[in-house]
Amino acid sequence: PDYVIETSDEAVAFFEERLLRFGVPQLAHLIGCSQDEARVHLLEHIRVCFDCCHFAVEYEDPLEALARLVAAGIRVGRVQLSSALQVPATADPVVIRRLQPFADAVYLHQVVEQLGGDLRHFPDLPPALASADGRVPGEWRIHFHVPLFTSRYEAFDSTQAYVRSVIEAVWRTGATRHLEIETYTWDVLPGGLKVDLAESIAREFGWVLGVAESLAGHPRTG
């Protein structure tokens, strides 16, 4: 979120308008192959990292995003399994106070607010909190990689269901075999959410493997 390549549309545009447009003739000349062969090489070795947290914060439908990439010939190198923090629209000032501990200075926590059909972007959580004026006008999704194994954090939700949808889509389509658990915020979680690190990691694997086991026997197209 809030970077140069932010959405699946922008990823497709980068591949088509930059990487392939300029890279194909350069690579073909460099290694002495045809431009068709150079295109195959580039698409084989330069792929997209599908980060569930990032796509959820952008309010992208995971199935549509994956289909958009596949239709453009772009391959998914790996899926990073990560949940975002989700805050419903509310006028309760207590919610704003409870969000303050998540505004750590270690990582950027970009915020995208959905209000009606519009999206409003904030580069970090503190600017979003400063604009809130004691309330959350629309639903917020916050780039804060909260643990996968629970869908609720005190007064807030997570995008755990989004992660499950991505795992199911990858299972059915065979988009990639590389899935990576990417929760890394253990040290900056508010105190009430911190538990033993080894136990937390075990619960992460347990949740992911549980989703995978529930898919056993389902049809696959990839």
Would you write up a description of this structure?
The structure is a single chain. This protein is an alpha+beta fold and 222 residues long. The protein has eight helices and nine strands.
Topology readout:
Layout: H1 8-31, H2 35-45, E1 48-51, H3 52-57, H4 62-71, E2 76-81, E3 83-87, H5 93-99, E4 111-115, E5 118-122, H6 125-132, E6 139-146, E7 152-153, E8 156-158, H7 160-173, E9 179-181, H8 197-215
Parallel strand pairs: 1-2, 2-9
Antiparallel strand pairs: 3-6, 3-8, 4-5, 4-6, 7-8
Helix pairs in contact: 1-2, 1-4, 7-8
Q: What is the number of beta strands? A: 9
Q: Unreliable segments (pLDDT under 50, ≥5 consecutive)?
A: none
State the end-to-end CA separation: 29 Å
Mean pLDDT: 92
What's the story with the biggest beta sheet? 6 strands, antiparallel
Query: In terms of structural class, how would the helical and strand content be classed?
Result: alpha+beta
Strand order, main sheet: write it out: 5-4-6-3-8-7
User: Outline, from the CA principal axes?
Assistant: globular
What fraction strand? 15-25%
Order of helices and strands: HHEHHEEHEEHEEEHEH
The total count of helices amounts to 8
- Name the helicity range: 40-55%
Q: In brief, what are we looking at here?
A:
The chain has eight helices and nine strands.
Task: Provide tags for this entry.
alpha+beta, six-stranded antiparallel beta sheet, 9 strands, single chain, 222 residues
